[in-house]
Structure formats: C-alpha cells, structure tokens
Amino acid sequence: MASRREPGTTYADTVYDLLLKQFMVGARDAGQPLNIPSIARDFDVSQTPVREALARLEHTGLVTREPLKGYRVAPLFSEFELVKLMEARLVIEPAVTLEAARRVTPEFLAELQTTVDDLSAAVEAESFSEHWRTDDAFHGLISQHSANPFLDSAYRAIGGQVRRFRLLAKASSRTAAITMIEHGQIIEALEARDADGAAQAMRAHIEGAAARALADRKSISST
Asked: What domains does the chain contain, in order, with CATH numbers?
C-alpha cells in the first residue's frame, strides 16, 4: 500500500517508486494506459499524489501524456530514436568519464566497484531490475564525479530516456554479463589514472550497448 510511506517522503514519492518498480518487473507494458483513479485505488491513496508521480515520470520519459486521453506507459523506442539516443551518449559519456578520471579517489573507485559487485549478484539471480538499477548507478556516479555541472546536467537530461529503454526493452541475461565485464574495464582504466583509456573504454561500452540494444529492438519488433 502506498499509504505506508517512509519517514521524510511524500505519498507522491511512494507512488512514484511503486510505479517505477512495476515498470522494472514488467507489470505494465509499453503503451499501456495509466488510469489515475484505478492507480489511486490500487495504492490506497488520493488521486493527487498519483497525478504528481505521473508528472514526474513524464519528465523522465517513462510516461507520456496525451491531451484529453491522459497518461500512458511510454512506447518502445523506434530504431531511429534508439540510434539518436546512443549518438548522444557517445558525445556525453566519454566526456564525463574523461573528467571523472582526472579526479579519481579511493572512495569513488570503491563506490563504482560496489555497483559492479551488485551487478554480478544480479547476473547470478537473473534479476533484470537489479541489472538496470546498478547500471544506472554506475553511469550516474561517473557523471556526478566529473565535477562539471554542465556535463552532468546533459547526462541527466538523457538519463531518463536511457532508463526508458532499459525498463521497457526485455533484455537477455547475456546483456548483464557483458555489461559487468565492460564496467570492469572502465574501472581498471580509472584505477590506472588513465583518463584517455577510461574515456575510450566508456566509448567502447556505449558502442557495444548500442549494438546489443538494436539487436534487442529488432527481436522485440519481430515477436
């Protein structure tokens, strides 16, 4: 029940988290209508926090809103949109990695390694939701550590769209295993204080992710 909220949070925060969890486990399909009164009943809250949560989810790209029709789970990316998203990542993420590599600290490396360890556990458990969560944390940590608020803002601007693909595309378990290896290669370059090598490792990771995402997108389209 959404009425059981954590101290310091609002009902909108709780509804947001519950809906996000439903997206992550595939409980709501791409393009599915999101009926506010129905969600309010399901989560035992008023309609106001549901509206607030849906508005926040719209900002991430996970939810869309049509005039006179209401909210829906975002549709799958078209192949064109996916290609353009990956092109944007190739501009932004090697740049934030280069900057982060110039400011490496033991604490930063430990945080990154924790996400890789968590990803390894997700691979063992075949938990796609944990895979996406830890992948998101890894990239977010690097962007934040760039200490460039403009680059970080650019990354955050597309972060919701990256999350949209992660949550709505049904990836295979091989994706998590490959991601874990590629994240490890980025950390190795960071540990060596090799800024150019870290940026190159991130570029290779994004290019690999793009190829896998396109393959997954075509697979989804054919089913």
From this structure: 11-73 (1.10.10.10), 79-222 (1.20.120.530)
